[in-house]
Amino acid sequence: MLSSLTLLFGNASALFLAWLLVDSGWHKRNRANRDYYRGVYASYGLLISERWSGLIALWGSLELAIGVALLVDPLRTVAAPLAAGLLLLYFVAIAVALLRGRGGEDCGCAGPDGALTITAALLARNGLLLLLAALVFTAQFTASALLWWQIVPASAVLWLGYQSLQQLLANRQKIVALL
């Protein structure tokens, strides 16, 4: 039997990562963003021609499906490892870009309006996301109703923290560019 605290953080992480993946997938599925993502993928060394740009939408659909599946108890056993694998893939892509000296290029995070570039701080942020993904393995949405009044606000705190961190990273990059 899992402790209430483990259920709280596991479920809050699942809700948060579901939002993150659905939002990310939504940006990639948006036809207006295809050229942007083709450029981002090219900066990571994945050249996608116009003919194969549908792969970007397919990748977005995969993110959407994993995000939604995180919210369904029977599907979470499959979705949790897929979400962790996806976040690990992004972590490795950022690490490889940094090792190749490609820091400062657009990371592709949060779509065209994200304005974040590849940095060590971004790698650390993705490491934190991987830790949250590990907590999702303990999530059980069959948790008691008494616990839900804590899970939803905890997930909102994770979302607010993530948004604040995104803004801090973007502001840091703008300040460094001014110096």
From TrEMBL:
Compartments, record wording: Membrane
GO biological process per UniProt: methylamine metabolic process
Keywords: Membrane, Transmembrane, Transmembrane helix
Record InterPro entries: Methylamine_util_MauE
Coiled-coil ranges (or none): none
All residue ranges annotated as the Methylamine utilisation protein MauE domain in the record: 9-137
Any Gene Ontology CC annotation: membrane
Segments crossing the lipid bilayer: 6-22, 78-99, 120-141
Source organism, top-level taxon: Bacteria
Chief subcellular location: membrane
Topology in membrane: Multi-pass membrane protein
Pathway(s) per entry: One-carbon metabolism; methylamine degradation
Task performed by this protein: May be specifically involved in the processing, transport, and/or maturation of the MADH beta-subunit.
Protein name: Methylamine utilization protein MauE
